[in-house]
Amino acid sequence: SSDVCSSDLLTGLGEAFSWLRQRYQHVQVQLIEGLMSRVLPRLRDGTLDIAVVATDVGDLRGDEFHRRVLRQVPQAVVVREGHPMLSRPNARALCELEWILTQPLAPERQPQLHAMFDRAGVSPPQSVVVCETLAAMTLLRHSNAVSVMPIPLLGHPETRGLQAVPKRVLQPADIEVLLLHRPDVPLTPAAEFFAHCLTSVSR
Fold first, then answer.
1. What is the end-to-end Cα distance of the chain in Å, rounded?
2. Could you tell me which residues come within 8 angstroms of residue 183 by beta carbon, excluding any fewer than 6 positions away?
3. What DSSP designation does 125 have?
4. Are 151 and 74 in contact (CB under 8 A)?
5. For 159, how many CA atoms within 13 A lie in the half-sphere containing its CB?
6. pLDDT tens-digit map of 33-90
7. Could you say which DSSP state residue 123 is in?
8. pLDDT (tens digit, 9 = 90+) per residue, 94-105?
9. Which is higher by pLDDT, 2 or 60?
10. How many CB atoms are located within 10 Å of the residue 15 CB?
11. The pLDDT value given to residue 203
12. How far is the C-alpha of 124 from the C-alpha of 135, rounded, in Å?
């Protein structure tokens, strides 16, 4: 069997899985979406073989996990289509709205996001909802909330109804998409091949 967890697999997953199935037709695969707070403990206890995570560039330090950089991805501040901020974008007004993020907005947890607000000369938002990615997309479509999202995800069916705010207003830093696994536990042949497929489709 092969277990993989991902917080950023909407792009490239289908192609990588198709390649896996061509070589390993009968291997059992479990795909789980989850945030870093869920992923890392499961990598540690061995219930996951590999994980694909999106994180601020340089944010994941130390040598606890073997890391492969799949890609570096630009981000955008996003709102629903028709949002009032699209016709008159304003950094201060955006920060007064509710934000939807995948982890708490604390300086030690999201330093690059705090740096974005500093560069714009505005205070970070006070109202933040923390949830997983698919829930965040749903909430964004049905509210005036704001979020930050990898630009390659925009235009996919999962992100329908969402639109980027012009970058001159707030400019989020790039993120890295990393493939992680424990260096002390050899990957199964199927997991190693799937990791290779994910690396290939990310180039």
1. 26
2. 63, 65, 66
3. P
4. yes
5. 20
6. 766 777 888 888 888 888 888 776 555 667 888 888 888 889 999 999 999 999 989 9
7. P
8. 999 999 998 888
9. 60
10. 13
11. 62
12. 22
Cα 52 from Cα 32, distance rounded (Å): 10
What is the identity of the amino acid at 169? V
Six-digit token string for 28: 């059992």
pLDDT at 57: 54
- What pLDDT score does 185 carry? 84
| d(C-alpha 200, C-alpha 177), whole Å | 13
Report how far residue 149's alpha carbon sits from residue 11's, in angstroms, rounded to the nearest whole number: 13
Beta strand pairing call for 175-181 and 50-56: antiparallel
Q: Which residue in 72, 70, 71, 68 sits closest to 183, CA to CA?
A: 68
How big, in percent rounded to 5, are the helix, strand and coil portions of the chain? 35, 25, 40
In 10 A of CB 113, how many CB atoms? 23
Please report the DSSP string for 134-202 in residue order: HHHHHHHHTSS-BEEEEGGGTTSGGGTTEEEPPTTT--PPPEEEEEEE-TTSPPPHHHHHHHHHHHHHT
Q: At 13, phi and psi to the nearest 5?
A: -65, -45
Handedness of CA 18, 19, 23, 29 (dihedral sign): negative
- C-alpha distances out from residue 130 to 1, 55, 106, Å: 32, 16, 12
